[in-house]
Amino acid sequence: MADEGEGRSEAKRPFPRFVADRPHLVEDAETALRLGKHVLLRGPTGSGKTRLAETLAERLELDMESVNCSVDLDMEALLGYRTLGLAEGKTVVEYVEGPVVRAMRLGRMLYIDELNVARPEVLPILHGALDHRRRLTNPLTADVIVAHPNFCVVAAMNEGYAGTSPLNEALLNRFVVFDVPYVQGDALAELIREATPSSTLSDAVVDRFVRLSADLVRASDVGELPPEAASIRALLDACDLCAHMPAMRAVRYAIAGKLSDPREQDLVMEIAASYFGDA
């Protein structure tokens, strides 16, 4: 039972900090937010955009409200909704604040993930909050919400993925844009060591995973593999598994297994075999 408890504890260890191989990325994004700008993080899936947003919130000492966009995102998911409640023994209609309203009122960071997945007709409601007015009229209550001085927005988007669409110019112009590519090289090695217990992966194994990542990114860039095959999140999952099983099995479960095309799965395993053999 003690071993099982230890295993559960290890599985819950916090995700590592954001590591960038582009100089000044974190500092420059933080500076933009401190100057009252809103930040758009643009990069492939699994490149660390959400972790970067969390890092920025930590550096600014702000609580974060999050919105995960989808084609089903509607006004209520952003601004809140009405529901029935009881007051003094009577049934009343109550308003429950949504993440946008809470963030504006309390001076929190609003993180909007997958911004370019939302239907274009939903997003214009944010325009007033994102420009110099820093206010919006809530159609659910008719209240005018004026943003707290600390209110800021960090949004994230993946370009070229199924279900995404280009942002309209009016919305895009309300952001300062930072590209977040896949971390590589020494920075990736640092991230792997931080994400995986130091006693489990040797420097040689870490180096092989770094070179495997570079090959997957190149294959994705030329269209041989989909972008998700090069996800750093998936690579870290493989490294974590590799601490407890052979590397090839870890790669199959964490990277190849997430692809739907068997040919793409085979290519990932072929590339991995060049570093890990049949292990």
TrEMBL record:
One of its GO terms (molecular function) is ATP hydrolysis activity. InterPro entries: AAA+_ATPase, ATPase_dyneun-rel_AAA, CbbQ/NirQ/NorQ/GpvN, ClpA/B, P-loop_NTPase. Residues 35-186 form the AAA+ ATPase domain. Belongs to the CbbQ/NirQ/NorQ/GpvN family. This is AAA domain (Dynein-related subfamily).
